[in-house]
Amino acid sequence: MKRSIWLAGLMMLTLALEAGAAIYSYRDEHGRLFLTDCPPNRNYKIVVTTRKEREGPDSPSQATFAVSAQSSAQKFMLPNDETFSQYINEAARVHDLDPYLIKSIIKVESDFDPNVRSSKGAQGLMQLIPSTARLVGCDDSYDPRQNILGGTNYLRMMLKRFDGQLDYALAAYNAGPGNVEKYQGIPPFRETRNYVRKVKHYYKQYAANPGAAKEGTAKAAKKARVIPVIHSDLSKRLAKAYDLFNSGDIERATESYRQILNIYPTNTQALYNLACLLDMERCYEEATDVYTAALKQDPYLDKALYNLAVIYERLGMHKEAIDTWKHYVTVAKDEEKIVMAERFMRELRDYAALN
Questions:
Q1: Is CATH 1.25.40.10 the classification given to domain 248-354?
Q2: Smallest Cα–Cα separation from 199: which of 127, 276, 141, 122?
Q3: Rg of the chain over CA atoms, in angstroms?
Q4: Which of 4, 123, 195, 220 could bridge to 141 as Cys pair (CB 3.0-4.6 Å)?
């Protein structure tokens, strides 16, 4: 009887996997790995329970800020965080805030993509929903300058509303001030708690004074600093490498990122982007090593965690995939993505139980 139930469960899972476009793998006598969602023979074995598209490298800069088909390509490489420094400095000066705090929020909200739109309708660099945009006088949320000025204005409002308590202001920026007041502190929402931790992580990373964000008050956000506007040597090298990628010259782009890492071995953008290119070229083992190196520099880099988990699944390393999805759940700022990762973990555990 138990065997019949087990077989029935296996059949149901197999049908579900087929419907969800599972991924199968086969390694030939030369060690080459083949992946497909339509196995041509029985030599292929299932390794991924749900087909997943990788996150790619984001562009280091935006040639155009208009919403267009080009915005999809922007998801392919970690962006240059120097691109909007002039607007960030202006907003910091107008609203008396630390520019590195503003920059940290942009990093978490949009990863410096001015064209991004969330599933909830939040738009642009600081992810303003239409009602908030109207409140702060932002007519075009996809215009980087307007968005940054508007988002910074709203952050200043939240700091004032919560007596300069940075954690509460950040939570209010993410979940709304009503929820912070309702729970008398950071709401018990996973995405909000992840959000606050993540912004503070990048604030510490960006700030010239590593301790600037530790006080957790408005005082920490009033440091008179200015972000350099002139693009650095590193920034120029990253832009050149991305241009090669964008032109379709993957080989030279890959070599450019390797050269950057010879000079700047801990640069997260170069590490992540190199890993993406290796991933695209199916050099999975090296890509895994480079994603891991990027995560060592930035443990909150959710894109790297996502891609690393997908690679582990493709290689049939399900335990490692589950562990990586667990880490992803602790840093993702979107509840939908958290739920998605939890579903992936359940699928992997269910699959493992039937094998």
A1: yes
A2: 127
A3: 22
A4: 123
Amino acid, single-letter form, for residue 342 = E
Which segments within the chain are labelled E, that is strand? 23-27, 33-36, 45-48
Longest dimension (CA), the chain: 73
Assigned CATH topology for domain 84-208:
Lysozyme (1.10.530)
pLDDT of residue 22 exceeding 60: yes
* pLDDT (tens digit per residue) in 252-278: 999 999 999 999 999 999 999 999 999
Burial class (CB in 10 A: 0-12, 13-18, 19+), 60: buried
Dig out the tokens for 225 from the structure: 């600093």
Q: How far apart are the first and last CA of the chain?
A: 18
In 3-state terms, what secondary structure has residue 266? coil
DSSP class of 48: E
- Residues of the chain within CATH 1.25.40.10 domain(s) are 248-354
**Per-residue pLDDT reduced to its tens digit, 188-219:** 999 999 999 999 999 998 985 443 444 444 45
Confidence of residue 222 (pLDDT cuts 50, 70, 90): low
Q: Say whether 82 is catalytic.
A: no
